[in-house]
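Structural prep section.
Before we set up the soaks we want a predicted structure of the protein with potassium ion in place, mainly to decide which crystallisation condition to try first. Input record follows.
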Amino acid sequence: MIGLSTVADVRAAEDVLLARTPEGALMQRAATGLATVCLRLLGRAHGTRVTALVGGGNNGGDALFAGAHLAARGARVTAVLLDPGRAHPAGLAALRRAGGRVTGPGDPDGLDRADLVLDGIAGIGGRGGLRPEAARLAERAATGPGIPVAVDVPSGVDADTGAVEGTAFPAVHTVTFGAVKPGLVVGEGRGYAGTVHLVDIGLGPHLARPRAYQLTDDDVAAHLEPPGDGDDKYSRGVVGIVAGSATYPGAAVLCTGAALRTRAGLVRYAGTAADGVRASWPEAIVTDARPGDAGRVQAWVVGPGTGTDDDARSVLAEVLATDLPVVVDADALTMAAREPDLVRRRSAPTVLTPHDREFARFGAEVGADRIGSARRLAADLGAVVLLKGNATVVADPDGTAFVNATGTTDLATAGTGDVLSGILGALLATGTPPAETAAAAAHLHGRAGQAAGESGPLIAGDLVRRLSPTVGRVRGLGLRDSGA
Ligand SMILES: NC(=O)C1=CN([C@@H]2O[C@H](COP(=O)(O)OP(=O)(O)OC[C@H]3O[C@@H](n4cnc5c(N)ncnc54)[C@H](O)[C@@H]3O)[C@@H](O)[C@H]2O)[C@@H](O)CC1
Ligand SMILES: Nc1ncnc2c1ncn2[C@@H]1O[C@H](COP(=O)(O)OP(=O)(O)O)[C@@H](O)[C@H]1O
Ligand SMILES: [K+]
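Run finished without errors. Recording the tokens verbatim:
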């Protein structure tokens, strides 16, 4: 797992480390790591042009020292000082010694010819939307030819939430120090950070235990282990699907197929789209009776395409009255938002899987702080909330959160959510902790999306078709990651 550390946690760890290291040592580690990534991106230093946008804090100091490293290797480095009176003195001196040029914000000509632009305007000390002069430079960098590289955090991005007010520096690469900050991987910030490179400056042992994580293939592989010698079709959990309707059988077919393709132990289906499911998936055990008559299961998925009429409501209430884990998706979310106590009174795990509009039905818009919003709803309902989006967020009622690292915008197509709930139900039936399981499902779903999107636009059925090879691939990558 990759821990995502808040600004407060990074500051606290830095304080401990700063007291134990010679003055300036941490900034040297940061700047050396930054220059190393820049050299890799440029391919060579000699003859290249680098423009550093330099604010009045330590983030600007990092940019100046990295600029000095690059200048010492033959790059033509120009530092544009936003606040000349407050530019990091030692960094400025180092850059000058190495032959770098220094200008002010009125003379940022270098931006139009740069091979690489370093954004050292503001890092974790940045507050609110970029000031006009900084915003102008960020916008010019966006249209210029140079590779935009953010120092620690793209300026204008809130490092904790990913919120962006107005303009932010549109990085293609972000070189971040000590720990990945949540704002680099979630919400709008994710789009501004590009590829995140983590430079180890020795903070690790001093960092508080993170409350948010990204899962890796290695972590997800642990949720996808093949059956053991002693397993049979029942032993690793049976999932029950309540989805679709006579008018909308598609959701039932996608959800059931996704469950089968994720962990094909045994999948039961109960609902009014039984004929469609039978025709598509002879492997599933199908009934058009109520969930209680479907046979024993270890987890339920309820909601995709069920509608919200009285019958659908009574089926939802029946499923939520069980002591089994339940995934509440789509139409079931609309009904649960009207009667949240159906969820609150449960003691078994519940996972809600809203997109933004479904989330808002529970009383508040998602807003710019997606992790915070998911955490609030999870705590309010005592349920895991999987908030879908470009970077899906999972929040446990205890505050632990996960931000998904996989996926593609190709997933923005009808029915892909039905596939996610099928995957999630299948994994939840194994009895693993619900929040991490939900995060694993989102990860696998994203990987299937990436695989299906490789050859062009995808439709939801392509995800189901790609699931088996994707499970195999994630298992394999997991083995490789863990060094086996
Ligand atoms: N504390 C440490 O030991 C280390 C800090 N490091 C660097 O230091 C950074 C934190 O430094 P600081 O605390 O000095 O703060 P920053 O340099 O991140 O931010 C403060 C500067 O940003 C400007 N600023 C803030 N909001 C702005 C806005 N909306 N528009 C325009 N300008 C704005 C301020 O005027 C000030 O010049 C980290 O992000 C990292 O890059 C690294 O060198 C590693 C070691
Ligand atoms: N822009 C996007 N980038 C990445 N993933 C997206 C994007 N838009 C949607 N998705 C993903 O696609 C899925 C859509 O689910 P949902 O909205 O429930 O669709 P449906 O109800 O049609 O099945 C979710 O997993 C979501 O995270
Ligand atoms: K920055």
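Observations: The chain has a mean pLDDT of 96.
Flagged for discussion at group meeting.
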